[in-house]
Specification:
about 300 residues, 2 domains, Rossmann fold, single chain, 10-stranded mixed β-sheet, about 50% helix, alpha/beta, 10 strands
Length: about 300
Amino acid sequence: MDALQHVLAAIDFSPDSRMAARRAARLAAAHGAAMGLLHVVDTGAWRGLRDLLAGKRDLHDAMVEQARIQLAVLAQQIADEGLVAAVHQDLCEGDPLQELGRRSLAADLLVVGARGQHALRELALGTLADRLSRSAERPLLVVRNEPDADYAQVLVPVDFSDCSREAVRAVQRIAPAATLHLLHAYELPEEGKLLMAGVSDEALAEHRTRVREEAQAALDALQAGLGGATRTTATVRQGDIRMVMLDEARERGCELIAVGKQGQSRLGDLFLGSVTSWALAHAQPDVLVVPFAARS
């Protein structure tokens, strides 16, 4: 599996984005990759103040210059920690969602903080991380914890689709030394209908056993296909994948959850997108979102 070549951290100077910068530096160091810091001056927010600040172009210039100084200070702090020798700085103006999407195409991995500076705006529109996850064309790492060590335990929910296999490959590339905990959760929504149709308890029990055994066989085959180079476990559990995922991550002590996501405008994205959003909103570990188009 090829090492990462370019890790890009999106910075808005919030505490979470600073953690994202440090995680990006740790990953860049582990892979010998180039590291960049990107800050986008939100022109939409500036336009909202334009009427109040008419004629004060000097204030706009001062805001941009302040961002440039903050970016340089953060880059120096990251370099001083000794993980990476150089940190490339990029400052631009525009819509953050569009600029990050466009500029991330030159990177192998985009790293962002789970929460940004503007809590009220995120409450209304959703976090930038969540909005990015819907349109990202590169793996997106959303950081909510201090990067005290490399990722050692990673949970990968799988549904045996190409999307979940892509997530496994992405984790193998990004955290090759980690143990992968493969998880498949299944539900039996048809049980109520079977009961109403008079199906016996014995037949229902056989149905549950068959569904579980088929899922376990498919998961075992996926695990076997990874080879011996990757340490893995494989677990099948009944229940809502969103709740099971959080339980399993907590029990396994995972620092990262990796979710494979179908490309936009695909019917499956309605379900996979909801799982991704749930993980971004509720998971305690960091979250890696891997779009299907992200194959390297």
